[in-house]
Amino acid sequence: MAWVATALACLIAAGILVLQGYIGYAAVTFAVALSAAINLV
Question: For residue 9, what are the contacts with CB-CB under 8 A and spacing of at least 6?
C-alpha cells in the first residue's frame, strides 16, 4: 500500500511541476513514480 501512495504522490507532484514549468524536476519525479510502480508488480 505504501508503494501505491508513493507512486500516486509522485505522479501528482510531477503534474504540478509540469504546470509550474519545472520540466526537469517533473521528469525526475516521474522517474521516481515509475520506480515506485515497479515495486507494485
Answer: none
Going by C-alpha positions, the residue among 5, 20, 19 that lies closest to residue 32 is 5
Give the Cα separation of 18 and 20 in Å (integer). 5
Q: Name the burial class of residue 20, with classes exposed (0-12), middle (13-18) and buried (19+) by CB atoms within 10 angstroms of its CB.
A: exposed
pLDDT digits (tens, 9 = 90+) for 1-41: 888 999 999 999 999 999 999 999 999 999 999 999 998 88
**Could you tell me the three cell numbers for 18?**
509540469
R_g of the chain, CA atoms, integer Å: 10
CA 29 to chain CA centroid, Å, is 4
